[in-house]
Write a structure and sequence with these properties.
7 helices, 155 residues, mainly alpha
Length: 155
């Protein structure tokens, strides 16, 4: 688990308790744990998130919570080999075969139409977790693979 995740969770709990205690002492801490407040806070947060995102993105967000507790480090050489293999698959067998090969190799992401925020033209792009930009740049450079640009978008 990343140290920032642990610190963030602990800091959130500490700030909550500090905020409650600074506004009325220990007696006010008990009043913060009633059912109605819990339902309004959690239910409202879920409803607001659902209203802001597509259902598939919401479900993927819930599923990705477990990533906080994993400390999985990937070997760059293995990732490079996967990228080369997947690009050969796309070139030889087509882009739909690329998506299937990526899924079977546990490469995060999926094939999507190029977002209109990038270009009004047609084409395809590979969508993957947003935190992979620098890692992907170094891998592409190391493998001498050409790319036009890497974009970070909230889609």
């Amino acid at each position: 688990m990343d140290i920032a995740s642990i610190v963030g969770m602990l800091l959130g709990v500490v700030m909550f308790v500090f905020g409650v205690l600074s506004n009325g002492g220990v007696a006010s801490l008990h009043s913060m744990w009633d059912t109605a407040s819990f339902i309004i806070t959690i239910g409202g947060s879920i409803a607001g998130t659902l209203a802001s995102f597509k259902l598939a993105d919401f479900i993927n967000g819930i599923k990705s919570i477990k990533l906080i507790f994993k400390d999985e480090v990937q070997d760059p050489a293995v990732v490079i080999k996967q990228i080369i293999s997947l690009s050969n698959t796309a070139r030889k067998e087509g882009l739909l075969a690329l998506e299937e090969a990526a899924r079977s190799a546990d490469v995060p992401g999926r094939l999507i139409p190029i977002p209109t925020q990038i270009t009004a033209g047609c084409g395809l792009a590979w969508r993957m977790p947003i935190g992979e930009k620098e890692k992907m740049k170094s891998l592409l450079t190391k493998c001498d693979l050409k790319y036009e640009n890497i974009y970070e978008l909230m889609i």
